[in-house]
Amino acid sequence: MKNNLTVILDFILNRATEKELFAIKEAIKRRERNAAGPSGKSLSDMAAGMSREIGKQMKVPLEQIRHTVRDMVIRMIKENAPEITDEQLDVLLKEWVGEPERKNQPTGRFPPEMILEMIRQFIAFSINKMPKEEDERLRAAMGDWPERYWQSFPEAVRLLVSRYLKGTLEETVFWKNVFSELGISG
Question: Which tens digit of pLDDT belongs to each residue from 73-93?
C-alpha cells in the first residue's frame, strides 16, 4: 500500500491536470457519500487505517517532517513560478507550511492527516482502548499529550470529538464530519 500511496500522491501533487484533479475530488466525494466504498470499508475503517499508517510513519521527528515538507513546497513553487521573489515565497510558506513549532506550545497548524492520527489516539485514550505502551511513549515525548492534542485541535473538531465521546454522534457521521472539517474530503 505504501508504494501505491506514494505513486498516487506523486501523481496528485506533481502531474495531475486540473481535469484529473476534479475527477479525483469527485470520486472521493462519491465514495464518502456511499459511506462504504468498493472495498467495503466504512469511513471509520478508512480513518482508522489511515491513522495507523500515519502512526507508523510518525516515528520520524516532527521537525524533520516539517523541514521536508517545507523543502518540497519551496521546490514546487520555484518550479511553477521561477520569477517569485523571496518575500513572496516567505508569505506563501507561512500560509502553506506555517511557522516552526515552539517547544511546549501547540501550533494549531498540523497537516490534516496528522490531526486525524491525533484524533484516533485521543479517542482511544479517552475510551480506555489505548495500549499502555503507546500512552507511555507519547507521555515520554510530550508530557501531558492529551491536553496538548486537545489544544491543537480546531474548535469544530473539538466539538465533534466531544459529541462522539458523549455518544450523541454516530461513528460514521463523526468520521465523515471530521474528514470534512480537516478538508480531507476534497
Answer: 788 888 877 888 888 877 777
Alpha-carbon span 54 to 133, nearest angstrom: 18
Mean confidence (pLDDT) of the chain: 77
Question: If we measure between CA atoms, which residue out of 14, 33, 38, 11 comes closest to residue 24?
Answer: 11
Question: How big is the chain, counted in residues?
Answer: 186
- Are residues 181 and 154 in contact, defined by beta-carbon separation less than 8 angstroms? yes
CA dihedral 103, 106, 110, 114 (to 10 degrees): 90
Q: Which of 172, 145, 146, 177 is nearest to 160 (CA)?
A: 177
Query: Considering the entire predicted model, what is its pTM?
Result: 0.45
* DSSP state string for the chain: -HHHHHHHHHIIIII--HHHHHHHHHHHHHHHHHSB-TT--BHHHHHHHHHHHHHHHTTS-HHHHHHHHHHHHHHHHHHH-TT--HHHHHHHHHHHT-PPPPTT---S---HHHHHHHHHHHHHHHTT-S-HHHHHHHHHHHSSHHHHHHHHS-HHHHHHHHHHHHT-S-HHHHHHHHHHHTT---
